[in-house]
Structure of Nucleotidyl transferase AbiEii/AbiGii toxin family protein:
Amino acid sequence: MNLHEHESDFNALAGIVSERLHIKESDVKRDYFIVYMLNKLAQSEWADRCVFKGGTSLSKCYPHSIERFSEDIDLTYLGMEEDDKTCDKSIRKIIAVMTEGAHSEKIPGEGNARNKSRKVWFEDQSTYIKLEIGSSVRPEPYSLKTIKSYIHEYLDDVSNLAAIERFGLETVTINTLAIERTFIDKVMAVKRHAICGTINRKVRHIYDVVRLCKLPEIQTFLADSKQLKYILQLTKNTDSHYLEKRNVPKEYNPLGAFDFESWRSCFDDSIRAIYENLHNDLLYTDERQNFNDAIECFERLDGIFENIGE
């Protein structure tokens, strides 16, 4: 991938795609560099030992699952059997591979031997990509998925194969967390941030849950009590292990029942205002979101979880 080495072409294509998707040119470029970094990983010896997860995995690997831009790369390194020293070295090597040719800096207050975060940028530092790699959770289930940059998708749509070849644009294949697990991760993250008083910074998770709930594969998943209970318990146990050494208020019990009624008051007018204005700066659509739909979604999930003892 060498489009970024052709400044005028890069700028022109970013402008076209920006108008097409109704997102900022800087985000089109950031999307390109996200795929560029993931391609570095996919072509390295570490590809089989990393799993792509989080919001960006949804927007890139499950097209139209969420209609918003996500600027993070969140990976799990499958090094749970390694001691801390070995794991630390492995994650540092992965970071070096993915950030080759870029500027990067550590994020103060984040990171230890098994979890590391970096700000990474190729042009303007203000449009950095956050790279997070951890080895404290079990990323199950996962499978291989393919991704392309928005620019690549545009050139595909207009059948400009010559430009794709000229700029070496790649379709990247990478281990990706299953959408069902990511969905439950998002659901539990909403509960955690609500109870811990930080949901105002994570309202996008509410949007993601509501959006994902409409997908046929999630509807099928929610109707499969056995698989749903398995993923819920796996996620709860993972969160419990991950959070035990973190400063999380004792009011939040990661192993407890979902019990939306006990924390629905956290979905107050301030959260409603943020949610119903997401279309102004985060979403690809100009359509105002209805917070009542979000409340109804979480009420429905609460009933489904209660029916299986969760």
